[in-house]
């Protein structure tokens, strides 16, 4: 980020530089602290210049603010978000300063009627504070944020398309003097874009404010316990607590191992060895199969899920592939049964093919009728041969020949 002199810069240029620093700091996780502090100073200078110039008043509404000054409403939000990224030993002071700027931004947006009504009802002291209400508010806030991001992207694409068409028209038709302002007259679109940006910043400000409050509470609790018990004793208590939990986990794991260890697979060789040594009999062949492995938490092993939640929990650690439904021995026996059935059917078909009923497909007629049919066929064939001898092929076409 280049060097710039804040004292000599006008408000628009200073705000542009501070906006670039804020964008760089929010998009990248690791930012130089010197750049962050420079961005905070630039935003503080912008805030001071806005107050001196009196750009905004509590008596005004959002319709009274000009399009050029709308972007300066984001200065407290940028300053609060950038202050949170400052690295300092006293983290609580940083959190307080960031929360103060975010609250200032939300209060001014509330005065300008830019904060949704449901946000105001929830932030009120007597507003709903149950888990269900907070969850519904977060979902609604997330939807507003997504809608604002989509709208900004749509405005950006529309502006780029218009810019390309304007450039093409300018190349084909020369622009007369005084027509530049007519071609670039997009004040309504710019105003809509800044209002959408402010709406998106309001959603992010509420989320960031809740996160900073929780972090401040955690740090205060940590410091109170540390000051009460002492630094060394506090760390020792944390280590002892972790050691106790690790010992309890290992102790419970030793008790769970008998449920989680898979059974040893049974093969044909082991079953045959058991039969030879008298530990099993041939009648137990149908019981000789693999036991399916049981996956999942030990609390659900061998249990019957009674609710949809338990059924889904039992399916968490299931394998990604299908488990076998039968053992290799069962598959071999099934295949042998299919082959025996197939061979029996082939033998039956061969017997039917070799039987007298299959060979005698039609009953033979009387011999006298066959002889009469044969004589009639012979007479017909002889008459046809005699006719062909008397009428050779092409004899009827002699009149069509030139010399006929």
UniProtKB/TrEMBL annotation:
InterPro entries linked: TAP42/TAP46-like_sf (IPR038511), TAP46-like (IPR007304)
Bias (Basic and acidic residues): 377-392
One GO CC annotation: cytosol
GO biological process, one term: TOR signaling
Annotated stretches, region: Disordered: 357-404
Biased composition (Acidic residues): 367-376
Extent of the signal sequence: none
Superkingdom assignment: Eukaryota
Any GO molecular function: protein phosphatase 2A binding
Recorded family membership: Belongs to the IGBP1/TAP42 family.
Official protein name in the record: PP2A regulatory subunit TAP46
Native source organism of the sequence: Prunus dulcis (Almond)
